[in-house]
User: Fold this.
Amino acid sequence: MVPDAAAADEEKCLADGMGRLQHNAFYMHRALDSNNLKDALRYAGQMLSELRTSSLTPHKYYELYMRAFDELRKVEMFFMEETKRGTYSVTDLYELVQHAANILPRLYLLCTVGSVYIKSKEAPAKDVLKDLVEMCRGIQHPVRGLFLRSYLSQISRDKLPDIGSGFEGGANTVNDAIEFVLQNFTEMNKLWVRMQYQGPIGEKAKRGKERSELRDLVGKNLHVLSQLEGVDLDMYKETVLPRILEQVVNCKDELAQHYLMDCIIQVFPDEYHLQTLETLLSAFPQLQPTVDIKMVLSLLMDRLSNYAVSTTEVLPEFLQAEAFAKLNSAVGEVIEAQVDMPISGAITLYVSLLTFTLRIHPDRLDYIDQILGACVQRLSGKTKLEDSKATKQIIALLSAPLEKYKDISTALNLPNYPRVMDHLDNATNKVMSAIIIQNIMKNNTCISTADKVDTLFELIKGLVKDTDEAQDDELDEEDFKEEQNSVARLIHMLRTDDAEEMFKIISTVRKHILLGGPKRLAFTVPPLVFSALKLLRHLQNHDGDVNGQEVSVTQKKIFQLLHQTIEALSSVPSSELALRLYLQCAEAANDCGLEPVSYEFLTQAFILYEEEMADSKVQVTAIHLIIGTLQRMNVFGIENRDTLTHKATGYSAKLLKKTDQCRAVYACSHLFWVNEQDGVKDGERVLLCLKRALRIANAAQQMNATRGGNGHVTLFIEMLNKYLYFLEKGSPQITSSAIHDLIELIRTEIQRDNTTSDSSANAFFSSTLRYIEFHKQKGGTVSENYEQIKV
Assistant:
């Protein structure tokens, strides 16, 4: 209730003051209209006396001041018109208003007449300005004095003897204008600082808030200085900046120093900052230890960075000014001086300095590494960073070179880059690793040496290795998959045309990913296997001779590495994935003409099938993969091929479901009839497989009928299509009479199941019959095989 009551009292006080101000303003205007100067000044003094109140906060006082300011502008216009007419002498007015009873109204009126006095040019502007700025020292109450001097600054800003203005010349020079503004600024800053030390200690925070509300009144003086045409670089360097910095340093106030340094950087041109960098930076170590220098210094570096980017013509100026050396030294001195600066603040400075360096000196990697080294030194002796602000700044620091160069290879050439990453906790390390991989993907960066790959995988070890089992268990499954898929995509970006170097790259990646734990292998092993297979094809196309030089990397050596790599999946376990990879390697060995190697990979696939695959659905998929792979192979001799095909057909007949058995067995028929010129064409064994599949289909149909079901007629239709396939291919053992008998069998089964007919089976059968009729009418060699079939 107390704050509400105080706010209500303040509102009432403001309303009362505003009412009295308006009352006196009314009578003042009536006196001005009747040209009664004596009464007008009396009512103006009473009106301005309302600004003597100490009951209002700066925010409410400002409302009252603005109302009085509006009324004073009207008084100023009256004085201007009357002096032009010759009704009153401006000199007399200047003397007359000084007879006001109270000092505050007197000084407001004096400033108002002083504005008219300067404009009349009856006296040098510098004399009037000097008189006014000295007279205003009569008000030492901080709030009243600040607003009075703000009024003086406001009414005089268009009447300063600046270059090109109407008030320059003769005894009036731009130096007078600068001196006036600097003097007013100095006095206002003293008043502003004094506010902090007036009143009870318990209200210190409240006074700090009130001072923050008034800071723009002080800062406007610096803005006025920056707008003066006469303040060129030399004037700024020799006079303006040293005077301002002297006041900033000597005031020894945290809020004032932070705000004014920020003001200097904001209002004056970037070119001036560059040319006076040493002077400006020399003030930073002299500021109070509690001043947040990092924000101000970061702002300065950001301003200079943007200035450099705006036009390349200024870059030589940066080199001439030795900007990097000065800023780097300043950052070091500030961090060393402020021993209590949080680690996030120090890293913020390094980020700004790095951004500046990347824009000004992108070719100086030694500068960039120097900054990273300074960061490492600041972090040394500390445990893993867990401060969220600090870790965000570290990510910004490490991301900056990636964004600038768009090439991870540049970052890999920086010795201190991985040392900075070592200070990240596991979660943040993963985030940074993901950023690195995204950068590589986005810019399509190709990493082509084993040394760089080794350095890269050390950088992203947070994604590649199990560093904290508990953390990995807590990680969301989808996030984990996304992380590992990004690593898999990265592996495909590691490539070179040098076969020996590529083998080293593959071996290096293998070394890292095998340390990644069983959960990761299922994601990272497949891309590594396919990279090795790609290298095999490269060697095969060049017959082991690349660029006219014989290479030491052999196909057998690569297959040996592949075998050892896939074996690692046994720890996952991921038998289905391992089987697929073994089959891929077997097919690659077949293309290379290495029968023993291909046989070994197929043997490993069969062992996995026997020992690891108990689920019936997995078995079905696996046996079809094996059959499809084996069918495409032509490297085997008779004995080895018979052994493998016998295994495949044997496992096909042992599947759990009859339907799966049937489909796998008739798929095996393709193992005995290969369409290639030198391929196997054993019609007897084809027919044997088809008959065996037909017997299994019959058994499935009978079992289905026993249960009162239907639907296995589709198997017979599929068998019919296989018969037609081998008939077209010219297998003499496939006769038209056998096909005719199968057609009749299908019709019988369909009629038997007509109560619950399967529309898809009927459509399949009708389509097959149309296919037969089409070939009968087509003519040619194939048509002769179909003519004997009775549909």
